[in-house]
Amino acid sequence: MTSHPAPYYQPRNLLITGAAGFIASHVTNRLIKNYPGYKIVALDKLDYCSNLKNLAPCRSSPNFKFVKGDIASADLVNHLLIAEDIDTIMHFAAQTHVDNSFGNSFEFTTNNIYGTHVLLEACKVTKRIRRFIHVSTDEVYGETDMETDIGNPEASQLLPTNPYSATKAGAEMLVMAYNRSYGLPTITTRGNNVYGPNQFPEKLIPKFILLAMKGEQLPIHGNGSNVRSYLHCDDVAEAFDVILHKGVIGHVYNIGTKKERRVLDVAEDICKLFGLDTEKAIKFVQDRPFNDQRYFLDDQKLKKLGWQETTPWTEGLKMTMDWYIKNPQWWGDVSAALHPHPRISLIVHANDDAWLLENARLSNEDENNKSSELKFLIYGRTGWIGGLLGKLCDNQSINFEYGTGRLQDRRSIMDDVMRVRPTHVLNAAGVTGRPNVDWCESHKVETIRTNVVGTLNLADVCKDNNLLMINFATGCIFEYDKEHPQGSGIGFKEEDEPNFTGSFYSKTKAMVEDLLKEYENVCTLRVRMPISSDLSNPRNFITKISRYSKVVNIPNSMTVLDELLPISIEMAKRNCRGIWNFTNPGVISHNEILELYKKYIEPGFKWVNFNLEEQAKVIVAARSNNELDAAKLKKEFPDMLSIKDSIIKYVFEPNKKT
């Protein structure tokens, strides 16, 4: 086929599969940065080697959207192509680690061949794709003769030698068939090895860097004479940029470099960067079942489109080393991946629970796998907030189910996750007391089981399954002090340590909040003295104080659920994480609320105040009084009303007696 210069192609709406993975995340970040007019939908099932943090530079862009899902789900793929009006696909999603393919070859077939087939069929059916870029590998060519100085051109025969490269070659055949049979506008790329920041450390360079950082030996398969070509991720991202805009439909493009290195050379270069003795730092281990000696590409075709490699090896390796030194915990515990011969079972199924979750997901694909982008699993059905969340989901047409398992029973949570297959988990379950927190003082074990053990169980199962958990917590873990005096307007920030221990309920909530900081998949929302427009609900703070014979009069931060619960749904969609003071800005006192109650609801209403000393005589546990700094939430949601304005708008105006 004769190549002709292609007109400059401009996509409108791109779907990038495997976008949270190594190469795809660099491509996605580059496109978002350089082409603000492009809308990009990032699809990733968040397998072990992908990480949402890889896409952090994109998250603030209004043209970026992340969808957690599997390309093997035909319903989901068809839905996305239509709902997002996709005209361009860049298909990176794949299982790529050769070592794993020797022990889990069927999974490679499922992901690499079947997943690609699902995408192609969706393109055929929806008839709206103008460009489909399929990302393959140099390994489909098989082994290159060590004596030749001529790289494999794109027209070379495909002779894969391991299960991984065989599945990639099979996927290529499907891409070619859909191009020829159905006219699908496809382009295929075949790339050399890539290195750089964000790469999961099952791959050679990050593995060696992390081992060197730990002072451990670098394991080399065989004698280390195998030759590979390495491109820095920035150069590869630029290559995909060029191919996207200038590539010719129906063509294949090698993304490669003529600069080759033995595996032993790579190990020695890393040892030099760390100042290690190569004789002591390197060890030789048993080789793979089959280990191609060399892959060598002819890259002239891509260079004719205007691409050039620009990152020197020594510079790129040093930048990569510096990144891993600054981000040693980017991937969490990767000790299994650093093994000389890692297997997917060691990496993904670190415990039986994780294995059960993953195995169930892979084997239970059925008609209940909804095409909706969002599906919430909600805990706390019989609770006030949990019930309101369900109603909100109904109103917003968000697919959801309530959890049926007890949070103290880890296996029952896992059953819920397997049954529902959610995109997010919302936890509004917990013990606050019957009828108030005084109950917790005499039921401490029950309080611990739910508020501490149950919450941690849920967070841990969610972490194993790569699920974001929105946890409705409490702000009743602080009390006014000399740094945050009453009436000063100085509120407690998210990073402040709890200082209120007056009730056992608050102790358990402070304890679990501190422990949850170790879970990056958790978003903690500190709710305070919740208020809603339902003045018949006895749990409503306004309803409570309007029925008390006496009340204290202290300004406090509070949460208007009618305004803030919809915000919690949006926070789930935005994948917000960490701790958030989930209250309206400012404070309001008991008397201010009751004055409004009198004005809007009951003109003849009267109440009596008493002080904290008098209150202490009629309650078992002390009560928290504080102001929380809501600046972080206000910055994320600038239209949020102050506490007084919100109460008037959402509570008193709708309930006003005429």
TrEMBL record:
Q: Which InterPro entries match?
A: dTDP_Gluc_deHydtase (IPR005888), NAD(P)-bd_dom (IPR016040), NAD(P)-bd_dom_sf (IPR036291), RmlD-like-bd (IPR029903)
* Pathway(s) per entry: Carbohydrate biosynthesis
**Top-level EC class as recorded in UniProt:** lyase
Alphabetically sorted, this entry's keywords are: Isomerase, Lyase, Multifunctional enzyme, NAD, Oxidoreductase
The record's listing under Gene3D superfamilies reads: NAD(P)-binding Rossmann-like Domain, UDP-galactose 4-epimerase, domain 1
What cofactors does the UniProt entry give for this protein? Answer: NADP(+); NAD(+)
**Annotated TM spans:** none
Q: Give GO BP annotations, semicolon-separated.
A: UDP-rhamnose biosynthetic process
* EC number per UniProt: 4.2.1.76
Q: Which reaction does it catalyse?
A: UDP-alpha-D-glucose = UDP-4-dehydro-6-deoxy-alpha-D-glucose + H2O
CDD domains with a match to the protein in the record = dTDP_GD_SDR_e, dTDP_HR_like_SDR_e
Establish whether keyword Chaperone is in the entry.
Answer: no
Residues covered by the NAD(P)-binding domain: 15-320
Q: Which domain of life is it from?
A: Eukaryota
Q: Which GO terms describe its molecular function?
A: dTDP-glucose 4,6-dehydratase activity; isomerase activity; oxidoreductase activity; UDP-glucose 4,6-dehydratase activity; UDP-L-rhamnose synthase activity
Q: Where is the RmlD-like substrate binding domain?
A: 375-545
What the record says about family reads: In the C-terminal section; belongs to the dTDP-4-dehydrorhamnose reductase family.
What's this protein's name? UDP-glucose 4,6-dehydratase
